[in-house]
Give the backbone structure.
Amino acid sequence: MKIVIAFGICGAAFFGYMLLYGVIVSKSAAVADLETQITIATETASRIASARSTLAKIIGDEIDVQQYFVSQTGVVAFINSLEQYGHLQKADIKVLSVSTSGTPKEPTLVFELSVEGTFDAVMRTIGTIEYAPYALSISRLSLGSNPQKSWHADLTLHVGSIPLEKTTNPNGLSIPTKTAP
């Protein structure tokens, strides 16, 4: 009788052990699945942080690059800077005309300028304009002197511009805006 009770207790203990072992195995599988999900989430968060950092750097670089271009709304400020270049070199700059050219994706502003002053002042002004921190090129340059022993230069300046995209407001009017970075 004691042997039957002992076998009964051992059987019950073995059955309990197997039951608990099954529960632990299923919980271990759930824990392993959660660890995998945490690893994936951590890697995703790391990639997102890296992408944000890269985007922030790209936006900073794009802002730096856009400073070399003149937007159509920034023409007056650009003209003022040209006149300031002339003033610093003791020359007179007159903007004869401003127009647009190029393609919609790569617009260009075309400036017809006249520079007057002494030969040195005119040449220094042209050099200052040529090496200004803008995406520009001088496509035409003519140099001459006046009877009053003053010099003048007429030049055509092509300056890279920022493309505009048109958006429509609620009233249906088309409004040019700067292209988003």
